[in-house]
Amino acid sequence: MSIAPELLRTFALRAADAGLIETFNAEDLDALATRLDSVERAAGEAIRERSDHSVWLLLSGEITAAYVPAAGEEVDLGTLAPGTMVGDLALLLDLPEPIALVAKTPCHLARLDRAAFWRWTESGEPAAAHFHHLLARLLTRRLRFANARFATLAIDEDPDRRSLY
Amino acid sequence: AILGEMALLDPGPRSATATALTSGTTLGLSAAELAALQSEDPALASALLRAFTHTLAARVRDADTRIAAVSEGWSREQSAVVWRTLWLAS
């Protein structure tokens, strides 16, 4: 298990453009690289099984993403480009995500397996703590977005439930 | 109870005010102290962050359920923006 550190540095540069990985330094990236599996997917192939609860980093290629609700119509989420990370909620909660991911072009991905992630967390490496911090920061931003939506829509009449904080 | 973890993890405006109803004792952790802890005791920092991330992830999933309940009537574009932001890290 591991992936070439240069590939991960390129991923980080692209992810930085999207504001994703700014808390990571070069040493963290090298530590993360040793925990990742390299995975190739052909165009048209599903990126992950529903039971897979890993984090995936898109190194090259493009992915089509769709929201698949338990009931109702699928919603096209567009194309994911290199520098994208997906699967963090599945990893943290050990639950499937309602997101279908299909390779639009041949793709090269780095996969952080759930078991490997928790082994890394328990290793006591500073990089593992930094990665956890990164995940927490991303989740916080999403909750702020959701709170703004709730405030705009005023969808919840109970003032105690209006915010997710 | 834990208060203020979102501002700790990603500095930004707070959306709630907490006022003591009785006298009591609280423990505080600043962003600088958390950063120092990650270097000095990464295992403890990871354990703390693990608790935060699990709570935050559960809240995002709860937000998904609550938003889904009111999303009927949205355009596909509106829905795509919401689901993309909630479920995709970037």
Comma- or semicolon-separated keywords:
A: four-stranded antiparallel beta sheet, 39% helix, globular, B: 90 residues, 4 helices, extended
Task: Provide structural commentary.
The complex is a heterodimer of chains A (165) and B (90). Chain A has 165 residues and is α+β, with helices and mostly antiparallel strands. Chain A is built from five helices and seven strands. Chain B is mostly helical and 90 residues long. Chain B is extended. The model of chain B has no long low-confidence stretch (mean pLDDT 85). Classes of the chains: A alpha+beta (165), B mainly alpha (90). The interface between A and B is large, with 55 and 45 residues.
| Protein chain pair with the most extensive contact, residues per chain | A-B, 55 and 45 residues
* Poorly predicted runs of 5 or more residues of chain A: 155-159, 161-165
Number of strands of chain A: 7
Q: What is the number of E strands of chain B? A: 0
Mean pLDDT of chain A: 85
Principal-axes shape call of chain B: extended
Major β-sheet profile of chain A: 4 strands, antiparallel
Shape of chain A: globular
Write the layout of secondary structure elements.
The complex is a heterodimer of chains A (165) and B (90).
Chain A lengths: L4 H13 L8 H8 L3 E5 L13 E6 L2 E5 L7 E6 L4 E2 L1 H6 L5 E5 L3 E6 L1 H10 L2 H28 L12
Antiparallel strand pairs in A: 1-7, 2-5, 2-7, 3-4, 3-6
Helix pairs in contact in A: 1-2, 2-5
Chain B lengths: L4 H5 L21 H10 L1 H29 L5 H12 L3
Helix pairs in contact in B: 2-3
